[in-house]
Amino acid sequence: MSPPIKFIQQPVFEEYSDIIDVRSPGEFADDHIPGAHNLYVLNNEERAQVGTIYKQESPFKAKKLGASLVSANIARWTGKYFLEQDKGYRPLLYCWRGGQRSLSLATVLSRIGWETTLIEGGYKSYREDVRNALENDCPNLNLKIIAGLTGTAKTLILQKLAAKGEQVIDLEGLANHRGSLLGLRPGHSQPSQKYFESLLAQQIRSFSSQKIVWIESESNKIGKLHCPSPLWEKMKQADAIEIKAPLNARVDYLIEQYPEFIENPEELKRRLSLLTERHGKNILNSWFELIDQNQWPAFVTHLLEEHYDPAYQRSIKTNERKIQHRITLLNLERDGLERAITNLVGINTEHL
Asked: Cα dihedral sign for 332, 337, 339, 340?
């Protein structure tokens, strides 16, 4: 006898073998549960075709076509994806509202013999949970800001803290953007705003309220994405630990971190051109001359002193950031970074 299809409102995703999003690839790209697989029962074109017939001709004709297309896609996934699954496979499925699309695949999987669960309310319900997590959990985070001038290895320090088991929100990592004019790597793209929020909510749900959550000082916009307002408001209230390092160490670090622009100087100049109105043609031309001459240390030094450092000082004043501690590093090599990590972990231990 086939196991009955189960329905659940707020699943614990880790309890399932697989999370399957049966919506179209376009819907999936806009947002989905992190870790879900897109086994659509209607692709973008098919969904549009069925919808058009439903509105312009007749619901009955649309349902007949939809059933045919859905059956063909399910047959393809059954032969291509589900043959690899064992008897203990426990999938969690969802579509837009937990309706016909997810139920069609769930029926087949249940008949095969797998314990199959549907998210009641589908993606719409999940999205509401994400919004609630951001609105309700962000105000309770015990945030500590890692601040510092550009090139003080703040993101690398965050990554090393996470590797030591500290609670970390890496906004730049989630946004796939390093948070400046040069932040988007050539050939890369950012997630949608909704998926960025999904990733953020997933992290926040995993945190203990008893421990510090480390986060890098950012503006409220990371590339094309916006920091959700509940988190941004909490960041504005949080104390900061400022990382300081010598200018020459910062220059060396940035040259090492941004090789793609050394390899593609024309793209670098194209992006810098967006600063013409702020700095004027004379300064831009002086930067371009250094780039053309491959004078990378001199170029980065000028860029820091004339653009990034003043911008940082303005942001500290604008956001009225309270600096609780300062950690001064002699270098940004392994020994210097380990010293920073030790100091930061010590702050967390004192908090506990």
From this structure: positive
